[in-house]
Design a protein that fits this description.
The protein is α+β, with helices and mostly antiparallel strands. It folds into two domains: 32 residues, no CATH class; 110 residues, LytTr DNA-binding domain (OB fold (Dihydrolipoamide Acetyltransferase, E2P)), CATH 2.40.50. Helices cover 22% and strands 33% of the residues. It has a seven-stranded antiparallel sheet with strand order 2-1-5-4-3-7-6, with no helix packed on it. A three-stranded antiparallel sheet has the order 8-9-10, with no helix packed on it. The radius of gyration is 19 Å and the shape is globular. It comes from Danxiaibacter flavus. This is LytTR family DNA-binding domain-containing protein.
């Protein structure tokens, strides 16, 4: 069932409930709030990637990290396989990820907490992140973001 999109977020649920009452449909409040949530608030459960000429889906829990190179976004999965992401920038992707799992390490990398093996300090409180899958270069978290990362990783 398609729901009407109502701009006034404060009244959205009430309008949906009234509409459903007129149709006789039965839906839980959880269904209503999930369907009514703005697209930018929904978290991705998978991403479309390109491997050769084929497009395929990868579940978010299978992604070790995202990175950008020459203005192209790539996905690296749990096996270390690299895919071209069907997305333009890491910033575009960042807001749709579950922030309890993914962390924006720097301008080039978004990392999955489940694939972090350890981190170590370098140069005045910066952090070097090590993952369970190979990375082409060191993933460095800046001195400014290091405290945010430490708090985030301890709460995951």
């Amino acid at each position: 069932m398609k729901l009407l999109i109502i701009e006034d977020e404060k009244n959205t649920i009430h309008h949906i409930i009234d509409y459903l009452r007129t149709t006789g449909a039965t839906v839980s409040i959880a269904d209503i709030t999930a369907d009514a949530a703005p697209q930018h608030c929904r978290k991705r459960s998978r991403i479309v990637v390109k491997k050769g000429a084929d497009f395929q889906m990868i579940r978010m829990e299978d992604i070790a990290y995202f990175f950008t190179e020459n203005k192209v976004v790539f996905v690296v999965d749990q096996n270390g396989s690299k895919y071209l992401a069907d997305i333009n920038t890491l910033s575009e992707l960042d807001g749709s990820l579950d922030e309890s799992i993914f962390f924006r390490a720097n301008r080039k990398y978004i990392i999955n907490a489940n694939y972090i093996t350890r981190y170590s300090p370098v140069d005045k409180s910066k952090l070097n992140i090590e993952l369970t899958v190979p990375v082409q270069e060191e993933i460095i978290i800046s001195q400014e973001n290091a405290p945010v990362f430490k708090k985030w990783i301890s709460e995951v």
